[in-house]
Amino acid sequence: MHAADLVAAWEQGSDRTPAGRGECLLDTVGIDPVRGCGLSVGQRDALLMDLHGRLFGTEVTALATCPACSERLEVSFHLDDVRARPPGDPTDPVEVEVEGYTVRARPPTAGDLAALDTTAPWPDATRWLLERCVLGARRDGREVAVGELPEVVRVRVEARLAEADPQADVQVVLGCPGCGGTWGALFDIVSFLWQELDARARGLLVAVHDLASVYGWSEADILAMSPHRRSLYLELVRR
Ligand SMILES: [Zn+2]
């Protein structure tokens, strides 16, 4: 990706929700928002992992806090370690039969996440998402509203949807060298990728500032330079 495109994606996504940032990031690889919204969350995340690999490499480093002893630790893993293979097309609906209920549902899409009210309390957001993803529920030949489904049915449907789109919910097992405890943490590629993009874009704009102040070159010209040339001039300026 060209430096100018990277800065443009960062600028567009800066004041958006995580789902909106995911949209901006997909846009940089030629997936327009309409197509992006139709992808399952796992399909979107797999594409964002590819993008991370191309821009920032396939090794990911994160900071975590041990829930048992509060030790801060740095965790590194390879993106291939968190790749999940869906059993079929994750945008296809699944049918779940449990406790006499038959429920047809589809895994959440990137568009669902973009439409989700992120300020809503978590149980409400989960319910809202399920209502959107359930295509129909019946019992004894009668239509049943999502709100009327017993919890055991809702839990089973959610589990079945997670199985159909495993890349959407990847847990990384972390181990604490201090107390030996292990725990699972959600791997969120959007926030990982965004942090890297944020750092890179800010670094580029500081470089623009430093070079423009000395040479008077335009932002566009500085961003269009090869990284090698830009860093050589920066070395001269910052000496
Ligand atoms: Zn610990």
TrEMBL record:
Stored InterPro entries: Baseplate_phage_T4-like (IPR024364)
Q: What is this protein called?
A: T4 bacteriophage base plate protein
